[in-house]
Specification:
heterodimer, A: MetI-like fold, 72% helix, B: alpha+beta, D-Maltodextrin-Binding Protein, domain 2, 2 domains, two-stranded parallel sheet
C-alpha cells in the first residue's frame, strides 16, 4: 500500500527522467555488449557470436611494446596537469573579469576569451600549423630567422610538445570554465564586500577571505567531474594538433588516439576493442580510487 | 526501495539488450546459409547457359540475349577524390551493353582511393550491400582473415569463363590464397615486374643541361648530382613529390633493385638482391643507414620539402601545383603518360631500379566480393566481362564514351586521344586508374606505353627473377608481432624517410623498438618457411 502510493507520487518524476534514461541506456549501456569483440577472433562471415574465442590474445598486441604504459601515463599526467593549470588560470581570469567595472569592456573580454572554445580542433590545428610549420610557419620564418636563430623542427622535437599541448588546451578551454566560475562569483552578495571595505580590507584580502571560500563548492564539483574523466582524453587535441606525427607519439599518444590509429591502420576491430576495454577498465579503477581518496578526506564531497 | 527499482530496470534492460543482440546474431547466421543456397542454385542455370555458348561460334555468342533475371550489382568506383561529372552517363551506357548481354544492371559507388582503406571494413561490418569491391593499395589478407570477403573458387569456375581461362596463364589470383581457396582477382597487368623511376619535366632537365639516357639505371649519387643542378636553377621548388606523413613502408625500394618481401611486407623481413636467400631486417642493414644519410643530406640541401613528414597535402597536389619537380613511380613505360598529365608537360623517365620479378607477381589490387553481397554470381558475371577479348566493357569503364570522352586515333595500335577542345581537366570522365580486367586490351593515349614497349619491360624483368619467385610467406602465426611492428614503422618511418630528423639519433631508437616488437622472431619464422620451400624446389 505504502509502496504503491510512493510510486504514484514519484511517477511524474520518473516519467520526466525517462527520455534521459533511454538516451543513457542507448548511448552508454547498449554498446557495452561490444566488449565481447575484444575477446573474440573476429570473423565477419561467422558473426560476432559465432567467432571463436581468443582469450586475452588481442591484448597481447598492446603489451608487446611499451605502448600500454606510454599511453596510460600520457593520458593521466596530461589530465592532471590540465586540471590543476586549468583551475588556477580560470579562477584567476574569472576574478579579474569580475573586477572590470565597465560593462562593455567586461562583455568584450568575456567573448574574446570564449571564442576559441567555439572553434573546432581541425581549425585550431591549422592555426598552430600556420605558426609552427617548417616551410611557411610564422615562428620559424618570421621570428626565429629574423632574430638570427636556428629554426626549430617543431613537429619533430618531442620536448616542446608538453608545453604546446598544455598551452593550446588552456587557450581553447579557459573561456568556458571561466564563465562557470564567474557566474558563481557574481552570485556572491555584495554585502560581504561592502562590510569588508568598511572594515578596511584590501582587494587581495577580499579575494582571499570572501571570494575564494565562497566559490569552494563550485571548485570541488568541477574538480570531481573532471577527475571522473581523467582517463578520457580530448581526441581533437592529441590527434589533430600534433598532426599525428609519429616521432612525437611518446609525448602525444593517448588512449583515444591509440585506439583510433589501431583501428584505422590495421583495420582490426578486435584489437581496437581490446584497447578500448583496457581504457574502460583502468579508467573505472582510477575513478573508484579518486573517489575513495576524496571520501577519506572529505566525506561530504565524494560522488558516491 | 528506489535502489531495488533501479536494479530491476537495469536487469530488464540487460535482458532486452541481450535479446536484441541474440536476434540480430541469429538473423545474420540465418542469412548466410540462405545466401549460399542462392549461390548454389544460380550456377546450375548459369552453367547450362555457359555450356551452350561455348559450343556456339563467337558470332552467335555476340548475339546471345540474356533471358534470366536481371541482377542489380553495385561496384566501388575508385577516384582521386572527385567523382567525374559524366559518371551517370557512362553507367547508363554500360548498362545498355550489360543488361542484354549478361543480365547485369550496374551501379557505381564512387569512393576516393584514400577513403577506401577505412570504408570497406565499416561498410561490410555494418551490413551495407556492395557486391564488388576493389581492394587496392591495402593488404587483402586482413579481409581474408577477418572473413569480410567470400572465397571465389566455385563461383569463378561456374560463371567466369574468361577469368578461368586467363588464370592459367597469368598470376591473377596469387597473393589472395588461404587454405587452398582464393579470395581476390587482380587485373591482367599490362606489364609484369617491379621497378621504379623518377619522372622529371623535359623543360627542367633541358634547362640545366642534363641529357638522360634511356635504360640507364640512375644511382642515388647520380640523382643527387642532377638534383643539385635543378636546385640551383629552381631554388624555390623541391626535387621530388616525397610525402611521408602517411607512409607505412620504406621507400628504400625506389632506389634499390631485387628487394623481395616474399609476398608480404618489409615488416617481416626481406631478401636483398636477386641472388640472395637470406631474409634480412632491412632497417638494421648498413645499406639502409647509408640510404637514410643520403635522404637526410637531400633534406638539408632542400631537395625534399621541409614539411614532407607532417603535411596533409599529397604528392600529387605538389606536382600539379608546381611545388615539386620530380615524380617517383614504378618503372613501367606506361607510367610516363600519367606523369605527363600530372605535370601538364612532356617528361623524361629516369630508371632508378633495374626491373625484376619478386615473389608476388600480381599487381596488389584485387577485385573481391564482400560477404554482404546479395548476388555474388551476378557480380562475377560483370567482373568476368571485363576480362574478355574485346575490351569493350573495360574501355567503357576506364575511358568513357567514344566520341565524347575520347576519339580513336590509331585503331591498329589502340591509340586514342581527347576530342577537339577537351583535355584532362575539362573532360567529364577522366579517372585513369587501371584496375579493370584485361589490361592488355586497354586503349592507350601515348605511344610510350604501346603494347610492344610494355612487353619489352616484362621481358627485361623476367631475366631478373629473385630466388623467392613463386613463394609466399604465411604470416598468420605472427600476426600480433607484425601488427606491433607495423605500428612502430608508422611511428618512425615518416620522419626517417623524409630526412626531417637526424638518423644518427632516431635510427637506434627505431631499431630498439622493432626488436621489442619482435621483428627477429618474425624474420626467423619467415626464413624457416622459405628454407623449407627452397629445399622442395
Amino acid at each position: 500500500m505504502n509502496k504503491s502510493r510512493k510510486l504514484r507520487r514519484y511517477l511524474p518524476l520518473y516519467l520526466m527522467a525517462l527520455p534521459c534514461l533511454i538516451y543513457i541506456f542507448c548511448n552508454n549501456y547498449l554498446p557495452m555488449f561490444g566488449i565481447i569483440i575484444a575477446f573474440k577472433k573476429l570473423n565477419f562471415a561467422k558473426g560476432i557470436f559465432g567467432s571463436p574465442w581468443n582469450g586475452f590474445n588481442n591484448f597481447k598486441f598492446l603489451f608487446t611494446t611499451q605502448d600500454a604504459w606510454v599511453i596510460t601515463r600520457n593520458t593521466v599526467l596530461y589530465n592532471v596537469v590540465f586540471i590543476i593549470v586549468g583551475m588556477i588560470c580560470s579562477i584567476t581570469v574569472a576574478i579579474l573579469l569580475n573586477e572590470i567595472r565597465s560593462k562593455t569592456a567586461g562583455k568584450f573580454y568575456q567573448s574574446a576569451i570564449l571564442i576559441p572554445h567555439l572553434m573546432s580542433w581541425v581549425i585550431v590545428s591549422y592555426i598552430a600549423y600556420a605558426l609552427l610549420s617548417n616551410e611557411t610557419g610564422l615562428i620559424n620564418n618570421s621570428i626565429l630567422k629574423s632574430m638570427g636563430k636556428e629554426v626549430v623542427n617543431w613537429y619533430g622535437e618531442k620536448r616542446y610538445w608538453p608545453f604546446i599541448l598544455v598551452f593550446v588546451n588552456q587557450w581553447k578551454g579557459i573561456g568556458f570554465s571561466t564563465i562557470v566560475y564567474l557566474s558563481s562569483i557574481v552570485g556572491i552578495s555584495q554585502d560581504y564586500y561592502e562590510a569588508a571595505r568598511i572594515d578596511g580590507a584590501t582587494k587581495w584580502q577580499q579575494i582571499r577571505y570572501i571570494t575564494l571560500p565562497l566559490i569552494k563548492p563550485t571548485v570541488i564539483t568541477l574538480l570531481i567531474l573532471s577527475l571522473g574523466r581523467i582517463f578520457n582524453s580530448d581526441f581533437g587535441l592529441f590527434y589533430q594538433l600534433p598532426r599525428n606525427s609519429g616521432i612525437l607519439y611518446d609525448v602525444t599518444n593517448t588512449i583515444d588516439v591509440y585506439v583510433y590509429n589501431a583501428l584505422m591502420n590495421n583495420n582490426d576491430f578486435a584489437k581496437s576493442s581490446a584497447a578500448s576495454v583496457y581504457q574502460a577498465v583502468v579508467g573505472f579503477v582510477l575513478v573508484l580510487t579518486t573517489n575513495g581518496i576524496i571520501r577519506k578526506v572529505d566525506r561530504e564531497n565524494a560522488l558516491f | 526501495m528506489k535502489r531495488r527499482l533501479t536494479a530491476l530496470a537495469l536487469s530488464a534492460a540487460m535482458a532486452l539488450s541481450l535479446a536484441a543482440c541474440g536476434s540480430s546474431g541469429n538473423s545474420t547466421s540465418a542469412g548466410a546459409p540462405a545466401q549460399e543456397t542462392a549461390v548454389q542454385e544460380a550456377p546450375a542455370e548459369e552453367s547450362a547457359g555457359a555450356q551452350e555458348s561455348e559450343d556456339a561460334d563467337p558470332a552467335a555468342r555476340e548475339d546471345e540475349k540474356w533471358t534470366g533475371e536481371i541482377s542489380h550489382i553495385s561496384m566501388t568506383y575508385l577516384t582521386f577524390g572527385q567523382t567525374p561529372a559524366d559518371m551517370d552517363k557512362v553507367v547508363a551506357k554500360i548498362n545498355e551493353l550489360t543488361i542484354p548481354k549478361i543480365g547485369v544492371e550496374i551501379e557505381f559507388v564512387p569512393l576516393g582511393i584514400y577513403d577506401s582503406l577505412a570504408q570497406y571494413p565499416l561498410w561490410i561490418s555494418s551490413g551495407e550491400n556492395v557486391d564488388l569491391i576493389n581492394i587496392a593499395f591495402q593488404d587483402i589478407s586482413t579481409y581474408i582473415n577477418q572473413g569480410l570477403i567470400i572465397p571465389l573458387n566455385d563461383i569463378v569456375a561456374s560463371s567466369a569463363p574468361n577469368i578461368s581461362k586467363m588464370m592459367q596463364e597469368y598470376p591473377l589470383v596469387d597473393g589472395s590464397y588461404k587454405d587452398g581457396e582464393f579470395y581476390g582477382i587482380s587485373p591482367r597487368a599490362q606489364t609484369y615486374g617491379s621497378g621504379s623511376s623518377i619522372m622529371i619535366p623535359r623543360r627542367v632537365l633541358d634547362s640545366v643541361g642534363v641529357v638522360p639516357e634511356e635504360d640507364h639505371i640512375y644511382s642515388m649519387e647520380e640523382l643527387g648530382e642532377i638534383f643539385a643542378k635543378e636546385k640551383e636553377a629552381f631554388p624555390d621548388q623541391y626535387m621530388m613529390d616525397l610525402v611521408t606523413s602517411s607512409i607505412t613502408g620504406s621507400r628504400y625500394g625506389f632506389y634499390n633493385s631485387g628487394l623481395d618481401a616474399l609476398g608480404t611486407t618489409n615488416s617481416s623481413g626481406l631478401l636483398m638482391g636477386k641472388n640472395s636467400t637470406e631474409v634480412k631486417n632491412l632497417y638494421a642493414t648498413e645499406e639502409y643507414a647509408a640510404y637514410l644519410n643520403t635522404i637526410r643530406d637531400w633534406y638539408q640541401k632542400g631537395y625534399i620539402h621541409p614539411d614532407a613528414a607532417t603535411t596533409s597535402q599529397t604528392g600529387t597536389e605538389w606536382l600539379t601545383g608546381g611545388v615539386a619537380l620530380g615524380n617517383f613511380v614504378g618503372g613501367e613505360p606506361n607510367q610516363l603518360y600519367g606523369a605527363e598529365n600530372l605535370f601538364g608537360e612532356p617528361c623524361y623517365q629516369l630508371q632508378t631500379v633495374e626491373p625484376f620479378m619478386p615473389a608476388k607477381a600480381s599487381s596488389g589490387a584485387f577485385w573481391s566480393i564482400p560477404i554482404t553481397s546479395k548476388d555474388p554470381e551476378g557480380a562475377m558475371r560483370f567482373l568476368d566481362l571485363m576480362y574478355d577479348d574485346t575490351g569493350e566493357l573495360l574501355n567503357l569503364i576506364l575511358w568513357g564514351i567514344e566520341g565524347e570522352h575520347y576519339v580513336m586515333v590509331d585503331p591498329a595500335e589502340d591509340l586514342i586521344g581527347f576530342p577537339e577542345g577537351i583535355d584532362s581537366t575539362t573532360s567529364g570522365y577522366y579517372v585513369s586508374f587501371g584496375f579493370y580486367g584485361n589490361r592488355a586490351k586497354e586503349y592507350i593515349w601515348d605511344m610510350s606505353s604501346s603494347h610492344a614497349r610494355c612487353q619489352a619491360y616484362t621481358d627485361w624483368a623476367m631475366q631478373n627473377k629473385t630466388k623467392g619467385y613463386g613463394f609466399c610467406y604465411d604470416p598468420s602465426n605472427y600476426a600480433d608481432q607484425i601488427a606491433a611492428i607495423n605500428a612502430v614503422e608508422a611511428q618512425y618511418l615518416p620522419v626517417l624517410e623524409s630526412g626531417s630528423a637526424d638518423p644518427a639519433k632516431i635510427l637506434p631508437e627505431f631499431l630498439q623498438k622493432l626488436d621489442a616488437a619482435g621483428i627477429n622472431e618474425v624474420i626467423a619464422d619467415k626464413q624457416a618457411q622459405f628454407d623449407e620451400w627452397l629445399a622442395q624446389q
